[in-house]
Specification:
Elements (H helix, E strand, L loop, with lengths): L4 E2 L7 E2 L1 E3 L2 E3 L5 E5 L6 E6 L3 H16 L7 H17 L1 H12 L3 H6 L1 H17 L5 E4 L7 E9 L2 E5 L5 H14 L3 E5 L6 H13 L6 E3 L8 H7 L5 E5 L2 H13 L4 E4 L4 E5 L5 H13 L9 E7 L3 H13 L19 H16 L3 E4 L19 E4 L6 H4 L6 E7 L2 H9 L3 E2 L1 E5 L3 H10 L4 E4 L14 E2 L2 E2 L4 H8 E9 L1
Parallel strand pairs: 2-6, 9-10, 9-12, 10-11, 12-13, 14-15, 14-20, 15-18, 17-18, 20-21
Antiparallel strand pairs: 1-2, 3-4, 5-6, 7-8, 8-24, 13-23, 16-17, 19-22
The chain binds nicotinamide-adenine-dinucleotide and (2E,4E)-2-amino-6-oxohexa-2,4-dienoic acid.
The site of nicotinamide-adenine-dinucleotide has 32 residues, from helix 8 and helix 9.
């Protein structure tokens, strides 16, 4: 079998695992991957059992000992660019697969997910060519001295455990630097979105990436593929994006064999809107940060603090903009918001909608499940929702919901805004909206997060450090920071 999806056009196309450069039927069980737009079966997926995970890790290890382990940075950069080109050549296939798995509007995926999937390979192809290490000349008693220089070596076999919200983008954000540095990877895509990681196996083969360098194993977390992979003694490092609670479980698994981890975890991000902002831009940016991807973006805003003089106007304008969001067919250009990823996630988000009502929230807009006609009635759509009036102690204001919703509260001073924005166990991202740049610098320096935007949101130069403070993550990736995780430094000391 040499194709990602076998039996295409039949009732139940089967998505295979990709091990050692081939699509294989490893494992005995399959699970269903359903389209969240209408509940249709997208494909059956082969769940990788413990022996399939063993096979993938062994293939990765063999690849490191083979020709891949002897490639130069220049050769790997050329191969990575071919992977980027391969994704762009098959853009429509990747787009269709991502939209079917996630339900997100094709307009969004075609501007962000797929191009960024390709760009990640080009960015790290550039990065690997400019990577340097340090050298120190030291004095010795005989006067001749010694020269110390560091060399970078690949870390080894990297487990890449991925979430479902931006499947190709977030997976390639880890795979590209790992391969640029000469590692081999075993990817565990989310069980909700298995398709684009599998298609990428075909692109890897077409690009000439040697067998065993890129492997994909499908399945769930605890008691399944994710746990088998993260506990596997043959894995040398784990990079993970997902929920903070899952990060805790993976950290325990990593501890068993003392492996390093790089974690991008949950958030409960704040926007701080000062009265001196450009209100049009603040509304436009907050609309995106709250509702893009149906609110399923780790960097998204779920807490909005607005300076009191513009509080009422801000709430009214955000409500008016949210009322214009159009739910429905992701391939329809008019659709601006898709469904949540699954019925299970919808139940979780609706439970927060119920908690908000029970806690006495003022529901500005939304607050429930929409009534849609067939076929969307079977989908996991949910209403875009805005609340005011909740105490800061409410779990709706403290816990990550990961849905298209936010709570808006007024503040009276800069100091109060900073205190409230920082009052969270998370520390991923914040947006500040003000036309006063002195204030922007002052506030940004006090906000306890990995990334602060001023008058923008989701603007990313991929060379910058990316990651979270507090319980939002461990470590930084992006540019040279990724290279720090995907390589190990060894010092050589030469007596002269
Ligand atoms: P999740 O933690 O439920 O699952 C992520 C992956 O981990 C999946 O592949 C899953 O199968 C696997 N997994 C689950 N339990 C496991 C275990 N015990 N051992 C090994 N693997 C396990 O996250 P999700 O629901 O897919 O994604 C949403 C979450 O991800 C949100 O909390 C969001 O904030 C976070 N996220 C963070 C970032 C970031 O950059 N900080 C980016 C995207 C998503
Ligand atoms: O842009 C990125 O590289 C990145 N890691 C985005 C994360 C989005 C979270 O959902």
């Amino acid at each position: 079998m040499n194709q990602a999806i076998s039996g295409v056009g039949t009732a139940h196309p089967l998505l295979s695992n990709f091990i050692d450069g081939r699509f294989v039927d490893a494992g005995t069980r399959t699970f269903e991957n359903r389209n969240p737009v209408n509940g249709d079966l997208v494909n059956l997926v082969r769940e990788a059992d413990a022996s399939a995970v063993d096979a993938a890790v062994a293939a990765a290890r063999r690849a490191l000992k083979g020709p891949w382990g002897r490639t130069s940075e220049q050769e790997r950069a050329v191969l990575l660019r071919k992977v980027a080109d391969g994704i762009m050549r098959r853009f429509d296939e990747f787009l269709a697969a991502e939209v079917r798995d996630t339900g997100k509007p094709a307009s969004l995926a075609s501007h962000i997910d797929i191009p960024r999937g390709a760009a990640n390979f080009n960015v790290f192809a550039d990065q690997i060519l400019t990577l340097s290490t340090e050298t120190f000349r030291m004095a010795t008693p005989d006067g001749a001295g010694a020269l110390n220089y560091a060399i970078r070596v690949p870390r080894g076999v990297i487990a890449v455990v991925c979430p479902w919200n931006l499947p190709l983008l977030l997976m390639t954000w880890k795979v590209a630097p790992a391969l640029a540095c000469g590692n081999a990877v075993v990817v565990k895509p989310s069980e909700e979105t298995p398709t684009t990681a599998t298609l990428l196996g075909e692109v890897m083969n077409e690009a000439g990436i040697p067998q065993g360098v890129y492997n994909v194993v499908h399945g769930f977390g605890p008691g399944s593929t994710g746990e088998f992979l993260t506990r596997h003694p043959g894995v040398d490092g784990i990079t993970f994006t997902g929920e903070t609670a899952t990060g805790t479980a993976i950290m325990k698994a990593a501890a068993e064999h003392v492996r390093p981890v790089s974690f991008e975890l949950g958030g409960k991000n704040a926007a701080v809107v000062f009265a001196d902002c450009n209100l049009d831009k603040a509304i436009e940016g907050t609309m995106r940060s709250v509702f893009a991807n149906c609110g399923q973006v780790c960097l998204g805003t779920e807490r909005v603090y607005v300076e009191r003089p513009i509080f009422d106007a801000f709430v009214e304008r955000l409500k008016a903009a949210a009322a214009k969001l159009k739910l429905g067919d992701p391939f329809d250009k008019a659709t601006t918001m898709g469904p949540l990823i699954s019925q299970e996630h919808r139940r979780k988000v609706l439970s927060f909608y119920d908690k908000a009502k029970a806690a006495g929230a003022n529901v500005v807009i939304g607050g429930g499940a929409p009534k849609l006609d067939a076929p969307f009635a079977e989908g996991s759509f949910i209403e875009p929702t805005i609340w005011t009036g909740l105490p800061e102690t409410s779990s709706v204001v403290r816990d990550e919901i990961f849905g298209p919703c936010c709570h808006i509260a007024p503040f009276d001073s800069e100091e109060e805004a900073v205190t409230r924005a920082n009052d969270s166990r998370y520390g991923l991202a914040t947006s500040i909206w003000t036309e006063n740049l002195t204030r922007a610098h002052r506030v940004a320096a006090q906000i306890e997060v990995g990334i602060t935007w001023v008058n923008s949101w989701f603007l990313r130069d991929l060379r910058t450090p990316f990651g979270g403070s507090k319980q939002s993550g461990i470590g930084r990736e992006g540019g040279v920071h990724s290279m720090e995780f995907y390589t190990e430094l060894r010092n050589v000391c030469i007596k002269l």
